[in-house]
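Form P-L/3: holo structure prediction, ligand FE2/S2 (inorganic) cluster.
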Amino acid sequence: MSRMTVNDRPLEFEMDPQTPLLWALRDAANLTGTKYGCGNGDCGACMVLIDGAALRSCLVTIGEAEGRFITTIEGLSRDRSHPVQQALVAEQAIQCGFCTPGIAIAAAALLRSNPNPSEAEIKAAIPNLCRCGVYPRLVRAIQRAGRVARRLETISAAPAPGIRAEDAAREVPAIRSLAPREAE
Ligand code: FES
Ligand code: FES
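OUTPUT (holo model):
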């Protein structure tokens, strides 16, 4: 049994502590925005914020995540209003979208420490693989997100998600919410 805070909600996973965090998030917590790409730490599709650092959740067990604060793509913002999300859409830096959640998480972590990154700094900080090859647009999007974060520019809100957040995050038997939120 492993306890942690996921997207501001305390959760208790009734699973083997050796279970990769990626599986717990996707299969138990129903937070399927975090993607399974390689399972080996190579692609970055599974990145989540753990205590503010972008880490590959396929390489972290829920035992290691005990007591930590996890943010998945579902928790980056409730309405796609995070500057990275806005800029990825505005710069059309998304094709199939499979890599996008991990990239958004990595970019959010980068901009928190460096709100005005150069192209070289972005390439060094974003190791994520994209089979669709959005890299040039990605650089533009992250730099634009930095300008939005620094209040030098605004972008209209990204389209609303097609699924309600409470549906996406509905509970399943493998987890127990210690302090469930009031219905929103
Ligand atoms: S699935 Fe974790 S790095 Fe590829
Ligand atoms: S947009 Fe398709 S893998 Fe990156």
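COMMENT: The mean pLDDT is 89.
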